[in-house]
Design a protein that fits this description.
10-stranded mixed β-sheet; mainly beta; globular; 11% helix; 6-stranded antiparallel beta barrel; single chain
Length: 274
């Protein structure tokens, strides 16, 4: 089983300019018209799962910096949940403030509205332990958004189904979606990357790793799609010194995610107007 040294860099827009120009060797790029990181712009209009995907914006209350990540609507009974990465909600150990989800975001416009976040959920160990690579298998989070007159899924369409996988599961032809920002990327347009996965670690729920994509800053929290479902979220890129590049995906498998999802859905259903 492949064992990777996970001295990884969490995706931060401030660091994107340091990304190598030759991260993914061209023979490994599977995406039609894919660039040096394996990504290509998503054709417009955004439909299906791409309509469900958008940007999650937040603000660090201490540094007063804005953080941009990806997220996608995940199907639930409450119809109000968005899947993202845990580190998109906790920046340097602090819960971000003024969080909002903008589905279908395109060129600075939120065609499906701005949805303020009212609740967040991450695995307990993400809140209780200092950051280390051991946390990467648990780098998944959920947010519940304000219902307003209609729930989120009534506007975006039915959310994606989670696809649980166990450690060691490999998938071919995943599609990663996100909003890369920084050098060569606008941060306002959705990009896609196709990749095959291998196992990254041999403990816990495991990690999916693809060497066909090297996610840039802003790509964190975006979905990894497979067969009409979401199998994981973009967690991290490889160390910037790794000229071959790879992307780490937190899988949606095991008890921690299932319990977190059930709890979040229950809480958001209780918030529904009488």
């Amino acid at each position: 089983m492949l064992r990777l040294v996970l001295s990884l860099v969490l995706l931060d827009p401030a660091a994107v300019t340091e990304v190598s120009q030759r991260n993914v060797p061209m023979p490994r790029v599977l995406t039609p018209d894919g660039d040096r990181l394996g990504y290509a712009p998503v054709p417009r209009p955004y439909t299906g799962a791409r309509r469900l995907t958008g940007v999650l914006l937040g603000r660090d209350p201490v540094t007063r910096t804005d953080v941009l990540c990806g997220g996608t609507v995940i199907g639930s009974r409450s119809r109000s949940l968005v899947l993202t990465a845990a580190h998109c909600l906790y920046h340097q150990g602090r819960l971000l403030k003024q969080l909002a989800f903008l589905p279908g975001y395109d060129r600075g416009r939120p065609p499906l509205g701005i949805w303020p976040v009212v609740r967040t959920w991450v695995p307990s160990r993400w809140r209780e332990q200092p950051y280390s690579s051991d946390l990467l298998p648990y780098d998944v989070g959920l947010v519940g958004v304000e219902r307003r007159k209609r729930p989120l899924e009534a506007v975006t369409g039915r959310g994606l189904s989670p696809m649980p996988t166990t450690r060691g599961t490999t998938l071919r032809g995943l599609e990663l979606l996100g909003y890369p920002a920084g050098k060569g990327y606008p941060g306002t347009q959705m990009y896609r990357c196709l990749g095959d996965t291998v196992e990254g670690v041999s403990e816990g729920p495991g990690l999916m790793v693809t060497r066909n994509c090297h996610a840039a800053a802003g790509g964190s929290g975006g979905p990894a799609l497979y067969g009409g479902a979401v199998a994981g979220v973009v967690s991290s890129s490889s160390p910037l010194s790794d000229t071959k590049g790879y992307t780490v995906l937190t899988r949606l498998g095991g008890g921690p995610f299932e319990r977190m999802f059930a709890r979040a859905d229950r809480v958001m259903r209780l918030r529904e107007p009488a």
